[in-house]
Amino acid sequence: MALSIGVIGATGMAGSAITKEALKQGLNVKAFVRNESKARDMFGDQATYSVIDVFAIQKPDIADLDVVVDAFSPGHDPSKAQQHIELAEHLVDLVKGQDKPRLFFILGAASLYIGSGHRLIERLEGLPNKEQFIATPRAQSKEYEFLSNVKDVNWVAISPSSNFVPGDLADYELGHNDLLRNDAGKSEVTSGTVGKAIVDEIVNPTHRNERFTVVNK
Prior knowledge:
Helix 2 links the parallel strand 2 and strand 3 (about 50). The chain contains seven helices and twelve strands. The chain has helices at about 15-25, 35-45, 60, 85-95, 120-125, 135-150, 190-205, and strands at about 5-10, 30-35, 50, 65-70, 100-105, 115, 120, 155-160, 165, 170-175, 190, 210-215. By secondary structure, the chain is of the alpha/beta class. The strands form three sheets. Strands 3-2-1-4-5-8-12-10 form an eight-stranded mixed sheet, sandwiched between helices. Strands 6-7 form a two-stranded antiparallel ribbon. Strands 9-11 form a two-stranded parallel ribbon.
């Protein structure tokens, strides 16, 4: 019997890649979206749709799912970056004490280690123009800290490389908590690669209550 997954933010860059890969691999997908018309243009009748505010999702909305993927993005408004943490807290609260559905979070690269015990967020905090972009890396670093202390929920997270861009699946390498770079020295990954890495982990779980990372070779 095919796995059933929910994708929150299914029409976004990461969410759409995950949804397409999941459908390709024969999974049942429930897309949590704000715009059903846009979603149907992307996925047709292959997925089912729930038009709902992400913070209004309740236990009955996810009770029949094996995995819920949080691919939500509040956009580029710095005042909304905190929603990354708030949604993680909300989803964890919904499944606390249960093994299913498994929660899958997409974090940024800022919480990855870059050597000598330092994380990328520390380097970003030292940049002169940081206030233009730092809100999201800060929030997603705090989201990872929150998840690291969650013990009674079946969760997993992925941190893309420092440059996460739209693009097709490429050959890739997986890691754990360290920022990865390819042979050319680039820390970059495409949405198609992230989608494949996530769905492969859903189908064949190898991580529990931990984060992993991915880079295009």
